[in-house]
Write a structure and sequence with these properties.
single chain, 99 residues, alpha+beta, five-stranded antiparallel sheet, 2 helices
């Protein structure tokens, strides 16, 4: 039953290019740039999001390394992070996820 509830919550999050995500720990703001499909031998299709990050209040980690401003997140990992409250999400279509 808990697995079904989690799957239902995951399905409620519809990520789109242009959505805003915020890392709660660092207050870094990210923008979803591109969704990539990759094929895995065991899990079939996997989807990844390219995120462009700004440095947050506590986040000088990006200031000296431009390459770190872009990151690739697996879609299910990103959605779980949103559900757990690690990442805040605001869709360009007006959607969000509140605990």
């Amino acid at each position: 039953m808990a697995i079904d509830a989690l799957k239902e919550e995951l399905n409620q999050i519809n990520l789109s290019v242009g959505d805003v995500v915020i890392d709660v720990a660092t207050n870094a703001v990210g923008f979803l740039l591109k969704r990539e499909r990759r094929i895995d031998m065991l899990q079939d299709d996997l989807y990844f999001w390219e995120i462009k990050w700004t440095s947050g209040e506590r986040g000088d980690q990006f200031r000296n390394n431009e390459a770190l401003k872009l990151s690739l997140w697996e879609e299910e990992q990103l959605k779980l992070s949103i559900i757990l409250g690690i990442i805040k999400w605001q869709s360009i279509d007006g959607g969000s996820f509140e605990l």
